[in-house]
C-alpha cells in the first residue's frame, strides 16, 4: 500500500495547519502497526505553499516559520510540491532552488513541472505528473493582480511535455505486467463547484487525460474539500487547510449514472491509499481475476478535535 496526503493551500501557520501533525503521525503509526512493510506517507503539496506572497529566496524566514517549525521538523516526510498562484507573488523559482540546495529537508520540486515516481513498495507502480498550472493557464493567472508576470513560462513548452510524457507512460502501461497508476497534480482545478469555478484553459488537459486513461487529477485553489468521479476519473480538490471559502454551504453528496460528487465546507484534508487488490490462482499460472488496484480515499477533519485523527469524515473506494 502507498499512502498520499493531498495538502493544498496550506501555507499559513495556524491551528488548522498544525492539526496536520497529530493526524499524519497517528495514521502513519496505525498503518505501520497493521503492515510492517508499509512505508511512511508522502505529502503532495498542491500549491499556495506560502501565504500571502510566496517566498523571496531560499533564505526567506517563512521556510522556518511556516514550514519547518510547525510541520516538517515533526513529520520528516517527503513533500512533492507544485506551485500555486500565491507562490508567484514573489519568486516561485526559490522553491525549486531550495529543493536543490537542501535535499535533506525532503522538500522536492526539481523543476516547474516534472514526473515523480515514488519507490515501489508493492506490485503497483505509480507515476505523478506535477504541473505548473499557473504558467499553463496565463489568462486565469493574470486575473490575480499580484501574480508577477515575468515569472510565467511559455505554456506551449509545458503542453508539449505533458503530451510526450503521457504518451510515454501509455506505452509503458501497454507493455507492463505490473499494475500502473497515473495521476496528475496541479494547483488549479479543471472542474469546480467551489469559489473560483472551472478553469477553461485546462479543458485541453481533461481531453488528454481521457485519451491516455489517466486515473486521477489532484488540485487545490478553491479552499474547500471536494471529490468527483467523472468519466471514471477521480477529481480531488484538497485545499481547505489554512483557509476555507464557501463552496456549498454544507456537506453534499450527488450521484448520477456517470458521476459522483462530494463536498465538505470545513477545514479538512484528503488521503489516498493505493492498494494492490489482484487475486491469483496458482493452478492457472497467476491469472488475474480482479481489478489491479483500488484507491482508498478518506477525508479527515482539521477542526482540532482529538477524535478527528481516528475516524475519517468520509470514505470512498474507487476502482479505476
UniProtKB/TrEMBL annotation:
Keywords: Hydrolase, Signal
GO molecular function: hydrolase activity
Entry annotated with the keyword Signal: yes
Domain Calcineurin-like phosphoesterase: 3-224
Pfam family, one: Metallophos
InterPro entries: Calcineurin-like_PHP (IPR004843), Metallo-depent_PP-like (IPR029052), Metallophosphoesterase_PAP (IPR051558)
Name assigned to this protein: Calcineurin-like phosphoesterase domain-containing protein
